[in-house]
Design brief:
Distance between the termini of chain A: 44 Å
Helix content of chain B: 55-70%
Oligomer: heterotrimer
Helix content of chain A: 40-55%
Number of helices of chain B: 14
CATH topology of the largest domain in chain A: Rossmann fold
Order of helices and strands of chain A: EHEHEHEEHEHEHEHEHHEHHHHEHEEEEH
Structural class of chain B: mainly alpha
Radius of gyration of chain B: 21 Å
Chains: A alpha/beta (about 400), B mainly alpha (about 350), C mainly alpha (about 300)
Number of domains of chain A: 2
Number of helices of chain A: 15
Largest interface: B-C, 61 and 64 residues
Largest sheet of chain A: 7 strands, mixed
């Protein structure tokens, strides 16, 4: 797949736009389109424009496989893929890898922790790390009576075992441990059991509808304890549903989101949000995604792809793929850059660069995973703000 | 032809084979024998899961990230045969419960409920088939069987699917147009007459149900060995309706008709809709597919209830019409006698 | 005891919502003999109409009432546009099941194309929780129970002691005889569809309040439960539907409290299948045989 001339380069957004995980698609689009806009405004990559192209994976392998094969067959200028969420990654990542297309996945599945596929890249931490960090957060917050409530979907079940194990490891008291069937019409009996166990804090991950129903029924029984949640709770759909159920003040007073540590005040982040504001045509209500970590990671992914192409002097996916860690990982004498434009200029001057993105530094290990540290964030005055950072010793103690 | 185009064509070919086999399976139950099997997709799913857990190694071998029963690493083609057996046995069990003297709409309801129960059990009993996440990393059997390029292996798998489809076609032809097939059709048209002749209509329904279950299992097995993964989102109860539409559009009881219907509805509509230039909100495409499927059903039931290529022997009135035309006419203003 | 009482309380809430919807489903079925699998779409449609009203400032109970009337109109329109025509076209009841399921799919996905695959919530407060003999119920839930009780009583009285009710019962027992006695079939059928749509509307707003969030598929998801309650009682019997709703509501909540919450729906469905094994016509129905549809 040689790419010459001035045709545009396609980055596919391969996520669910329909079905239970339908938020995945718009979420990734909110990362891709700002990157597309900024890269093209800086003159594009080696004279080519970047184009984001959404494809619906429908969130299940049987639909995703033909969709992925069609995408690969019908898009000769495909240079990269954002996608394969936890619902489809194991089925489609090998297909893109076979076609030599780099895939930046947001799946948290542990099966990719030691992925040997050269084309697989993951910026966000895997689910078990997330689960352990949530337990560590309970310890740090001094909350000892812990309940865990996880949905039975793949994403929540990725973090649940590590969270439960972490609670025990940290000598906290696990008062109850619930796995709830997602999408049920009521959880009253589960809620009753939880309330009678009297937890100080609930460590939880579930989809918006499930969380909203569960928490609204919990509120009927009295007050809601503190909540330790994960990046899912920063998704606008989740907040919208839960606020509808228990009210914004209740949620903001209780919710501690444990997310990858990315101080959302950096130049890279400000650049991202400024571009996000202007893409109302491609993404409806774009600013709802402004602190969504998956969107932010997808933004960084596209910028990294573009910088790697610049450094490789090639838009061929097979060629630039090997340059990906060379523009992200720290190296002697590398100039730290926070935007595509700055990186392009530095590369043109023959310098080595390290892109530190909107989601923070990205340091890929030999399995192409870039796990970060974690922070506890709270929602204040219309924004998420870091309230404390979990040290690596605090997180290690949970494993 | 580029490798990518070849892979796409291979994918479409496999999906056509799988859909044709599945639609024939539904046709023998619904088209030929007249059982409204609204849990059909469960049998396909059971076949897919069975093939997966028979061909995968133990669940601990994949790093423990997925949990399932079985994991016996059985060689090709044992997982496929196992899938057919499980499909047939499951159909037998469901048939025992639902193929009794129930009103046909109660029967449809029971089938629907069975489909929902199966989904809840698969999702909540995570140790069974790995819950909502589903099973993945199922290897294509041709990879270990044949030393060739990946591309050749895939085309050999396509040939294998075509072979299976042809085999099923021959068996279906022999069954549907045999005296046994005529009995099944008679059950569909008038089960009381069949019983007056001393035959047990329910036993014949059960036979058709079990044959259909085995073939549905086969279709699931082929699908999972090709795509490598299988999850509850792919077999939620409305999926059954796609196969119903395929049978109705093609022509109930007509083997060639149903094959054409399966290719058109099960694969054609979906692939065609995806090429529509809707880029900003792909969720509309998914809705559109269902809307088109629903409209196709209504249009065919209204204008051409016998389907594109109707069943050959038509000595009975069109199955879609009421048994007695004068009764239907009367029903415009009034309704039939309570005893039917 | 505490667990049992609260489970019973929750079961009664679920049963109230189910009862309104199931009676709507079964009433229309008893008159027209159409097994209407698009009933869930009517629920979703009215739920969204009520949402539009509610978000523009109308109180939730007024939105429920207006939504319910719209539900009645939608239901009549579906019969006029699709079902009635297919019946007069001479389709078998067998085919009619497929017609209603296709209609339901078309409606659900049309709604989904407009509202998108996201979740919505009404702007309504559940109110303070009351402790009634160990059952914890919110003000909102109490209102839902009262509405259900009033609806059930009204339906019962309406069917038993009005001319229209007599006409409906007549149609459901023997249509040709009813017609011969001068029952205006078309009009009674239209009333049945309207009443069923109204109950779908009330049931859906109550349901969506109860689940606190809803999407384009919530109504159809709930439909299986509604039909289970109706079939359990014996389709066509309003009293049966109420009993069926109570059995389903209590079975699910008690399962969730004492056994496995993930399997609570499964238990309700298994109860349904067991009842049908013993009594193929359901608990209360006299209508066990095949009848022709009426449009």
């Amino acid at each position: 797949m040689a790419h010459s001339g001035s045709g545009s380069l396609v980055v596919a957004i391969f996520h669910a736009y329909s079905g239970p995980n339908a938020a995945f698609g718009p979420e990734a689009a909110a990362g891709c389109f700002p990157a597309e806009k900024l890269i093209n405004a800086a003159g594009g990559v080696l004279g080519h424009k970047i184009v984001c192209d959404p494809t619906d994976s429908k969130g299940d392998p049987a639909d995703a496989v033909p969709a992925a094969n069609r995408l690969i067959a019908s898009t000769s200028s495909l240079v990269g893929v954002l996608g394969g969420g936890s619902d489809t990654a194991t089925a489609v990542v090998p297909l893109f890898a076979q076609a030599n297309i780099p895939v930046f996945s947001t799946t948290g599945q542990a099966s990719f922790d030691h992925s040997t596929s050269p084309y697989f890249w993951r910026i966000l931490s895997p689910d078990p790390a997330q689960g352990g960090a949530m337990a560590a957060a309970a310890k740090k917050l001094g909350l000892t009576r812990v309940a865990t409530v996880f949905g039975n979907d793949s994403s929540a079940q990725g973090s649940a075992p590590a969270a439960i194990a972490g609670v025990t490891k940290l000598h906290l008291h696990l008062v109850t441990n619930q796995t709830i069937a997602i999408g049920q019409l009521s959880y009253r009996s589960e809620v009753q059991k939880l309330a009678s166990a009297k937890p100080q804090v609930i460590i939880s991950e579930a989809d918006p509808q499930t969380s909203a129903t569960y928490l609204s029924e919990l509120r009927q029984l009295g007050t809601i304890p503190d909540l330790i949640t994960d990046p899912v709770s920063q998704e606008p759909g989740w907040r919208k549903a839960v606020i509808g159920a228990i009210g914004a003040s209740n949620l903001n007073a209780r919710d501690y989101a444990v997310v990858a540590y990315a101080p959302l005040t950096t130049l890279a982040y400000r650049t991202y949000t400024a571009a996000l504001k202007t893409i109302g045509k491609q993404v409806s209500q774009p600013m709802q995604w402004n602190s969504d970590l998956y969107s932010v990671a997808d933004y960084d992914s596209v910028v990294v792809m573009a910088l790697a192409m610049d450094m490789a002097h090639s838009t061929s996916p097979k060629v630039y793929n090997t340059f990906i860690p060379k523009v992200t990982n720290p190296s002697a004498g590398a100039v730290v850059v926070h935007t595509y434009a700055a990186g392009k200029v530095a590369l043109a001057k023959g310098k080595r660069i390290q892109y530190v993105g909107a989601a923070g530094a990205i340091i890929f290990d030999r399995w192409h995973n870039a796990g970060q540290g974690f922070a506890i964030e709270r929602y204040k005055n219309g924004n998420w703000a870091v309230s404390s950072v979990l040290s690596s010793a605090e997180i290690k103690a949970a494993f | 032809m580029s490798a990518a185009t070849q892979l796409y064509l291979a994918t479409v070919s496999v999906y056509i084979c799988v859909n044709v086999i599945a639609s024939w399976a539904l046709d023998i139950q619904f088209g030929v024998t007249g059982v409204l099997n609204f849990s059909f997709v469960v049998f396909q799913a059971a076949g897919a899961y069975t093939a997966a857990i028979l061909s995968l190694g133990p669940s601990s071998s994949s790093g423990g990230f997925q949990r399932y029963v079985g994991g016996w690493r059985l060689p090709f083609p044992v997982p496929i045969i196992g899938a057919m057996v499980v499909g047939a046995v499951l159909a037998g069990v469901v048939g025992l419960v639902s193929l009794r003297r129930l009103r046909s709409d109660y029967q449809a309801m029971v089938m629907l409920v069975v489909s929902v129960i199966a989904t809840i059990v698969a999702e909540s009993q995570t140790g069974l088939v790995n819950g909502v996440a589903g099973i993945s990393l199922v290897a294509n059997p041709m990879v270990s069987l044949i030393h060739a390029t990946r591309q050749t292996q895939i085309w050999i798998f396509v040939l294998f699917c075509v072979f299976c489809m042809a085999l099923v076609g021959v068996v279906m032809y022999a069954t549907v147009y045999s005296p046994f097939g005529r009995v099944l059709r008679a059950v569909r048209e008038n089960d009381r007459a069949i019983e007056a002749l001393g035959r047990n209509a329910n036993r014949h329904r059960m036979q058709a149900f079990v044959i259909g279950g085995a073939l549905a299992g086969l279709s699931g097995a082929l699908l999972v060995e090709f795509i490598g993964a299988w999850a509850p989102n792919g077999w939620f109860y409305p999926e059954t309706f796609v196969f119903f539409t395929a049978v109705i559009v093609g022509g109930r009881g007509s083997l060639t008709g149903v094959a054409v219907g399966a290719a058109l509805v099960g694969v054609g509509v979906q692939q065609a809709v995806e090429y529509l230039p809707i880029t900003l909100n792909p969720s509309v495409i998914a809705s559109l597919e269902w809307i088109i499927t629903g409209i196709l059903t209504l249009v065919f039931l209204w204008t051409r209830p016998q389907g594109l290529l109707p069943e050959r022997r038509r000595r009975f009135p069109t199955p879609w019409r009421s048994d007695a035309p004068e009764l239907a006419e009367r029903s415009a203003a009034t309704k039939g006698d309570e005893r039917g | 005891m505490g667990v049992l009482m609260s489970a019973i309380g929750f079961g009664i809430v679920t049963a109230s919502i189910l009862a309104v919807s199931s009676v709507g489903f079964t009433l229309q079925f008893s008159v027209t003999n159409v097994f209407n699998l698009s009933f869930g779409s009517v629920m979703t449609g009215t739920g969204f109409i009520a949402y539009a009203l509610n978000t523009s400032g109308v109180s939730i109970w007024a939105s429920m009432a207006i939504g319910a009337l719209c539900g009645g109109v939608i239901s009549v329109a579906l019969n006029w546009l699709i079902f009635g025509r297919f019946i007069r076209h001479g389709i078998s009841r067998f085919g009619m099941v497929i017609v209603t399921i296709a209609t339901g799919l078309i409606c659900d996905n049309t709604i989904q194309a407009f509202v998108g695959p996201t979740f919505y919530a009404y702007n309504a407060q559940p109110g303070k929780a009351f402790n009634l003999a160990g059952m914890l119920l919110t003000g909102q839930e109490l209102i839902i129970i009262v509405i259900a009780a009033v609806m059930m009583t009204a339906t019962h009285v309406g069917l038993k002691s009005t001319r229209l009710g007599a006409a409906m019962r007549g149609l459901s027992v023997n249509a040709s005889l009813a017609r011969a006695c001068g029952v205006p079939t078309r009009r009674v059928v239209a009333v049945a569809w309207f009443a069923s749509g109204v109950m779908a509307g009330i049931g859906s707003v109550a349901l969506f309040l109860d689940t606190s969030t809803f999407a384009a598929t919530t109504g159809s998801q709930f439909l299986i439960m509604v039909i289970a309650a109706a079939v359990l009682g014996g389709v066509g019997s309003a009293e049966g539907a109420v009993v069926g709703a109570l059995v389903v509501g209590l079975a699910t909540e008690i399962t969730a409290a004492y056994w496995n919450p993930e399997l609570k729906d499964v238990v309700a469905f298994v109860v349904l299948i067991l009842v049908l094994l013993v009594r193929p016509q359901g608990m209360f129905s006299q209508l066990s045989s095949e009848r022709t549809a009426v449009g």
